[in-house]
């Protein structure tokens, strides 16, 4: 397997200033830039050679889907293809039908754009790009073409063809030449994660101060979810990991399960310090169960990682467990609001366009939609829209310089490519930079679309000015509408997340897992919300008992406890069954109310104690690995109740079996 | 004159149509080779797959017009 050559660029022979500049570059940036620019120019060359009508679309695509990880480039290529085909089809369907009623056409396209964005936001995986792109591809094709509906089919075909061309060139270049696989990025992260989890386990065993671990364990949750997101690219990867995605998913599921298990263990160990009597025995049992589970899970994780990294090793467990994919948090309310705001922005744009009769208004409206969509997943998209817009604008003077000063004297593709490659290579080095990458990309996209390289070169200054003015209007419109309609602050976002998290626990307790739904869906969403909260609180100091501070991990643990109690209910005698029903109803009540009600809290604690007293003569639990959540053995119900009591009422006095009052 | 296929009355250039068919053939072959664990012996799987696609495309482009007389001009 060829790997990227190590870029130890500062060679001793180079003069000092050059070495200083090279040392500033992000590592791997130059190679990635060369690959991306080569792909773009290859696409441009083929497009010009075949004589496609808008060659710059092909070139821009090569810059849009580029990613340092070959697998991510390839998955984006597939999603972009799907989105473009759907979007083109919708444009071809709508425009001829409604071309005589511009208001109706605007409304239909705006609704389609908003609907597509809203649905795409429900999926926080990279897959959501398909539908988002389908939405704004339709408007990009349809709005500039409303005055010539007969050309819509040709226009849509041209766009699809050129995007296929750009995708193909980009995929080929990034897969064939020194591909950097997702596996090469994901492998070390997984190994590091497991080492951290082992360290945490050892800390708990030694009895380290649990409060000191809070931040570390949140970091583990964030890393686990980021790995799960990165793993979505693996089926498209250039490494052999794409053939063993089942093993990878099994590993990720165990990682998610380890978090509540380890944090529960830490909690039980801490509670054991001051406990005595029957309560201490129950706590000890719960701690031992968690300890065994943690050990089993960690061993399985390490075996699975070995199986991933060494083709000869076989996975340590049979992979016939239910294949529930890891689910991510989705917020229908925000998604709907985002969809609505892009619809409104598009309609305002259309009103301006139709009202003023501005020729390039169509471009402005289409670009408004693009700007609204690109950053709709953020809490506050406005700064990103503005930054992206300004970076795009920065590309315009460059394209103007080329269009009116350089290119008139150029004849043939080779000089054109040489002249273009210089600035593109320089900006392209930025692409791998975590902070400046997106802005470099925006600047290149701005340059490319400003150039709009036609087969027959035309430097039409009025057209150039109008097209770019359209972008300014689009940025202002997108930022204004978004700011007015759907920007929410960090604290609001956290409050929403906590509310949804609580509601899901309440539903789980009230109804049990929905038929056919994997418990991993609930666990995945709960962990993902914990991560979302953590990322938003990232810079803020964590207040120890603040509801947002401790929220999350506790809910993730309660999700597991509820699953254990429900498993016990399935086999319980009528008396115990009734007691457990009381407990579950109490949890549902606890989590559906926003403010704690002391009377109901006391009632829930009493219900837990009654149920716990009834379970005292049950058999002790056996430890299980992943089955700990998938098919919980009923005898884990008692430790489940103990854990629940600890999670919900850490300050309550010790449980005494004598008086289940 | 560019060779074209008539699909449902619409004339489409032959090269993309054959490329799509070649892509499907390549994906099937790829699945087979994965099942046979052949890729252990391959130095650069991506290059291998690309070469496989080019071969499939060339074979289809050479063979199909002969198999379908009258459709390709």
Throw out a few tags for this protein.
heterodimer; A: 661 residues; mainly alpha; Four Helix Bundle (Hemerythrin (Met), subunit A); elongated; B: 73 residues; two-stranded antiparallel sheet; 2 helices; 2 strands; 62% helix
Determine the strand fraction of chain A and express it as a percent band. under 5%
Order of neighbouring strands in the sheet with most strands of chain B: 1-2
Radius of gyration of chain A in whole Å, from Cα?
29 Å
SS element count, helices of chain A: 25
Helix-strand sequence of chain B = EEHH
What's this entry about, in short?
Chain A is mainly alpha-helical.
Description:
- The complex is a heterodimer of chains A (661) and B (73).
- Chain A has 661 residues and is mainly alpha-helical.
- Among the domains of chain A are: 308 residues, no CATH class; 128 residues, Up-down Bundle (Four Helix Bundle (Hemerythrin (Met), subunit A)), CATH 1.20.120.
- The radius of gyration of chain A is 29 Å and the shape is elongated.
- In chain A, 47% of the residues are buried.
- Chain B is mostly helical.
- Chain B has one domain.
- Chain B has two helices and two strands, in the order E-E-H-H.
- In chain B, strands 1-2 form a two-stranded antiparallel sheet.
- In chain B, helix 1 crosses helix 2.
- The radius of gyration of chain B is 15 Å and the shape is elongated.
- Chain B starts with a strand and ends in a 6-residue tail after the last helix.
- In chain B, 8% of the residues are buried.
């Amino acid at each position: 397997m060829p790997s990227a050559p190590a870029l130890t660029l500062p060679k001793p022979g180079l003069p000092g200033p050059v070495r200083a500049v090279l040392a500033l570059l992000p590592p791997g940036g130059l190679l990635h830039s060369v690959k991306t620019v080569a792909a773009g120019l290859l696409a441009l060359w083929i497009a010009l050679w075949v004589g496609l009508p808008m060659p710059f679309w092909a070139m821009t695509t090569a810059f849009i889907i580029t990613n340092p990880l070959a697998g991510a480039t390839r998955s984006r290529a597939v999603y972009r293809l799907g989105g473009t085909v759907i979007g083109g089809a919708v444009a071809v369907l709508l425009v001829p039908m409604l071309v005589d009623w511009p208001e109706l056409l605007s409304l239909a396209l705006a609704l389609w754009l908003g609907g597509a964005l809203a649905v795409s936001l429900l999926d926080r995986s990279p897959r959501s790009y398909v539908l988002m792109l389908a939405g704004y591809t339709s408007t990009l094709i349809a709005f500039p073409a409303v005055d010539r509906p007969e050309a819509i089919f040709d226009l849509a075909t041209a766009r699809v063809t050129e995007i296929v061309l750009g995708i193909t060139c980009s995929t080929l270049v990034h897969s064939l030449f020194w591909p950097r696989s997702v596996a090469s990025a994901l492998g070390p992260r997984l190994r590091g994660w497991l080492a951290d989890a082992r360290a945490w386990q050892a800390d708990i065993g030694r009895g380290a101060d649990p409060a000191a671990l809070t931040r570390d364990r949140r970091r583990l949750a964030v890393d686990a979810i980021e790995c799960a997101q990165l793993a979505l690219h693996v089926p498209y990867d250039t490494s052999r990991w794409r053939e063993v995605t089942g093993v990878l998913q099994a590993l990720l599921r165990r990682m998610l399960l380890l978090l509540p298990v380890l944090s529960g263990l830490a909690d039980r160990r801490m509670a054991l310090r001051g406990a005595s009597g029957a309560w201490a025995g129950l706590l000890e049992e719960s701690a031992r169960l968690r300890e065994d589970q943690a050990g089993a899970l960690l061993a399985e994780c390490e075996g699975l990682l070995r199986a991933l990294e060494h083709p000869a090793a076989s996975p340590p467990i049979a992979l016939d467990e239910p294949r529930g994919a890891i689910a991510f948090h989705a917020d229908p309310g925000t998604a709907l609001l985002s969809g609505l705001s892009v619809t409104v922005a598009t309609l305002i744009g259309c009103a301006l366009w139709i009202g003023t009769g501005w020729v390039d208004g169509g471009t402005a409206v289409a670009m408004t939609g693009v700007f609204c969509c690109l950053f709709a997943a953020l809490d506050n998209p406005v700064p990103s829209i503005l930054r992206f817009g300004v970076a795009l604008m920065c590309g315009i003077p460059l394209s103007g310089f080329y269009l009116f000063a350089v290119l008139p004297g150029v004849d043939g593709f080779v000089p054109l490519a040489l002249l273009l490659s210089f600035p593109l290579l320089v900006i392209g080095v930025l692409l791998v930079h975590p902070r400046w990458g997106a802005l470099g990309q925006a600047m290149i996209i701005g340059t490319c679309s400003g150039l709009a390289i036609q087969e027959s070169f035309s430097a039409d200054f009025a057209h150039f000015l109008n097209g770019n003015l359209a972008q300014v209007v689009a940025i202002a419109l997108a930022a204004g509408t978004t700011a007015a309609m759907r920007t929410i602050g960090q604290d609001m976002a956290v409050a929403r997340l906590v509310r949804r998290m609580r509601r899901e626990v309440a539903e789980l307790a009230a109804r049990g897992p929905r038929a056919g739904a994997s418990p991993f869906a609930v666990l995945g969403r709960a962990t993902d919300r914990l991560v979302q909260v953590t990322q938003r609180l990232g810079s803020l100091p964590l207040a120890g008992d603040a509801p947002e501070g401790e929220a999350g991990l506790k809910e993730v643990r309660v999700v597991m406890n509820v699953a254990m109690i429900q498993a016990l209910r399935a086999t319980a005698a009528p008396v115990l069954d009734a007691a457990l029903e009381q407990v579950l109803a109490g949890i549902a009540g606890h989590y559906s109310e926003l403010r704690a009600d002391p009377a109901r809290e006391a009632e829930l604690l009493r219900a837990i104690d009654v149920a716990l007293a009834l379970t005292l003569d049950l058999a002790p639990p056996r430890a299980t690995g992943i089955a700990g959540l998938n098919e919980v053995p009923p005898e884990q119900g008692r430790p489940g109740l103990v854990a629940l009591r600890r999670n919900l009422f850490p300050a309550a006095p010790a449980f005494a079996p004598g008086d289940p009052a | 004159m560019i060779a074209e296929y008539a699909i449902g009355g619409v004339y489409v250039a032959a090269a993309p149509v054959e490329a799509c068919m070649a892509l499907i053939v390549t994906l099937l072959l790829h699945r087979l080779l994965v099942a046979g664990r052949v890729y252990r012996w391959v130095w650069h799987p991506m290059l291998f797959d690309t070469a496989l696609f080019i071969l499939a495309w060339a074979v289809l482009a050479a063979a199909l017009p002969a198999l379908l007389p009258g459709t390709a001009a």
